[in-house]
From TrEMBL:
Pfam family, one: AzlC
Annotated source species: Octadecabacter dasysiphoniae
Keywords in alphabetical order: Cell membrane, Membrane, Transmembrane, Transmembrane helix, Transport
Membrane topology designation: Multi-pass membrane protein
Transmembrane segments: 20-40, 47-65, 71-96, 135-160, 166-182
Protein name: AzlC family ABC transporter permease
């Protein structure tokens, strides 16, 4: 991020990341409140947000721990919820894979839904960007998001029960994911995978330990992958004289 152009893309990414604070802050506040109410100490709660660093997986794991679920179920659920990060990484590797190892490691640590969403859209819209510009944009996007997630968790611990019920902080969770996912629904495979996951999650909602979400996630990814393959074959057939 040394050149003037790189700095420009850093601040462009920063501006793209700032609006996500509207959902990241209440999301983090809610986790801080819920974790402390569940019996976690302040240190444990802060470590959860700064080490695990994955809001949806944190909530899923926390709920299962409160329900005294077996530890293997807790780990499997958290990994399944965060499986999307593996797909994010594979997608970003196309654009950032030539970065130095320490930068790739840092990118992997701070990569969250918000940073991935704005970064991959920018890379696809501007494929001519240099590697330093791509890296600068990515780190710009995460700068307002990631530190404030940890700060918001701390505020949730601190203010705790003083948050009035009418604020309904839990609205941040679905809104956050809708804001991220909606712009990424670009292909038929994306749409069918999303609909599949919704229908299966509702169908299996009664299963214990959130097994329904695991089933829905795995099947939806398989369906989406098959649709992508089918579309690729159709494109090849049309292109072949």
């Amino acid at each position: 991020m040394s050149g003037t152009g790189d700095k420009s893309y850093y601040w462009t990414g920063f501006r793209m990341g700032v609006p996500f604070l509207l959902v990241v802050m209440p999301f983090g506040l809610l986790f801080g409140v819920v974790a402390t109410e569940a019996g976690f100490t302040s240190v444990q709660t802060m470590a959860f947000s700064s080490v695990v660093f994955a809001g949806a997986a944190q909530f899923a794991a926390l709920q299962l721990m409160v329900d005294d679920a077996p530890i293997l179920i807790v780990i499997a659920t958290a990994l399944a919820v965060n499986l999307r990060m593996a797909m994010y990484s594979a997608s970003l590797a196309v654009w950032l894979g030539e970065a130095p190892l320490w930068k790739r490691a840092l990118i992997a640590y701070v990569n969250v839904d918000q940073s991935y969403a704005v970064s991959i859209n920018r890379y696809e819209d501007e494929p001519h960007l240099t590697l330093p510009q791509r890296i600068a944009f990515f780190f710009g996007a995460v700068t307002p998001v990631c530190p404030m997630w940890v700060v918001a968790t701390g505020l949730g611990i601190w203010i705790g029960d003083t948050i009035p019920d009418w604020m309904a902080l839990d609205f941040a969770v679905p809104i956050c994911f809708l804001a991220i996912i909606a712009p990424m629904m670009r292909t038929l495979a994306h749409m069918i995978a999303a609909v599949t996951s919704i229908l299966l999650a509702l169908l299996f909602a009664g299963l214990p330990y959130n097994f329904g979400l695991l089933i829905a996630a795995v099947v939806a990814m398989m369906v989406g992958a098959q649709i992508e393959l089918w579309m690729a074959r159709r494109t090849d057939e049309v292109a072949t004289p």
